[in-house]
Design a protein that fits this description.
An 8-stranded mixed beta sheet has the order 4-1-8-7-11-10-9-13. Strands 6-5-12 form a 3-stranded antiparallel beta sheet, with no helix packed on it. By secondary structure, the protein is an alpha+beta fold. The protein has helices at 62-72, 118-123, 129-136, 169-175, 182-189, 195-203, and strands at 3-9, 12-13, 20-21, 25-27, 32-35, 38-39, 57-61, 85-87, 100-103, 106-113, 141-147, 149-151, 158-160.
Length: 205
């Protein structure tokens, strides 16, 4: 595996909307510093739902994006989904909470899946795109930064699977907002899930 693209965005206004968003991201040349809050210089406009230490870097796998290119009927340009990083040879469906991506000094740990929103649908110019994305069951990957560092397109990535019981990205998307069985809740809580999801699950006890 290697980093195929690193993408950052500036605050931009969506057509017909009163607010600005950082979802319009574009691949950049050269090295990018990544710290606990994500890619330095990347715009995060809605801090309530985006960004933060457990949602610092958003990854898409190249195999998933190749699939989307076929579904959309056009070449996929890095950053279209608002991702910060594209990793070669990666299928989002194979990724679980706690998996790690290591590139040089940089260590990213998977914490959550992407849940599509109205802003995403507006960016794609399709009011039904959130439902389409959910139905595809190939959600993007949010990571916390365990160790910061400098990243650059073309650099190798080591993939370390989580050693515990798996909570995959498709399963996280499917169960989002639902009450879990005691067995599944225990499995989720045994993984290093996003702190907001952890709080929701602990409140179900």
């Amino acid at each position: 595996m290697k980093i195929l693209a690193l993408c950052i965005g500036n605050p931009e206004r969506l057509a017909g909307k009163s607010y600005k968003t950082g979802i319009f991201k574009h691949a950049v040349n050269g090295a990018v510093m990544i710290d606990a809050e994500g890619l330095v210089g990347d715009a995060i406009c809605n801090r309530k739902h985006h960004g933060g230490v457990d949602q610092a870097v958003y990854i898409e796998g190249s195999l998933t994006l190749d699939w989307w290119s076929g579904e959309l009927g056009r070449p996929y340009e890095a950053g279209t989904f608002g991702e910060n990083m594209v990793i070669s040879g990666l299928d989002n469906r194979d990724v679980s909470v706690g998996d790690r991506f290591i590139s040089g000094d940089l260590v990213l740990e998977v914490s959550a899946c992407r849940i599509p929103c109205a802003t995403f649908a507006a960016r794609m110019n399709d009011p039904k795109f959130a439902k389409r994305y959910t139905a595809a069951a190939r959600p993007g990957i949010y990571c916390r930064v365990v160790a910061g560092g400098v990243a650059e397109a073309g650099t190798p990535v080591e993939y370390q699977p989580f050693p515990g019981k798996k909570v995959t990205m498709p399963e996280l998307m499917e169960t989002f907002g639902r009450r879990l069985s005691e067995t599944d809740r225990a499995r989720y809580l045994a993984a290093p899930i996003h702190y907001k999801l952890r709080a929701m699950l602990e409140a179900q006890r």
